[in-house]
Design brief:
disordered N terminus, seven-stranded mixed beta sheet, Hypothetical Protein Aq_1857, Chain: A, three-stranded mixed beta sheet
Length: 113
Amino acid sequence: MATQSLSSLTLTPAAAARVAAIAQKQAKPAMLRLSVEGGGCSGFQYKFGLADSIDSDDLIAETDGVKLLVDPISLDLVAGCTVDFVESLGGAAFRVENPNATAGCGCGSSFGI
C-alpha cells in the first residue's frame, strides 16, 4: 500500500516546532510516530517516538515541514485527533485531543473508547 496523506489528524505548530527541535538535537529526520498500544489506566495508551523512516503503509499529516506518522491500525483509534505540545507548571508533554475517547486518565496518556 502506498503512503497516504492524512487530513483527519492535526499536528499543531507548537508540536511541530518541538519535534523539529528534538530531531535536530538527535540528528534525525523531523518525523514523529504516533501509535496506540493496549494498556494504561483507561485501556489504550499513546506512544510517541521519532521515526527514522516512513513505512509503506503509514498515513502522514504534515505541519511546517514536520511529519506525523500513523500506522493504519492506530489510525482507527486516533482519527480526528489533534496532537499538541503544551508546557505548564506540571511539565511539558505532547497531548492528544481525541474526539473518539469516551474515557481518559488525569495524565492524558491513556484513553478508552
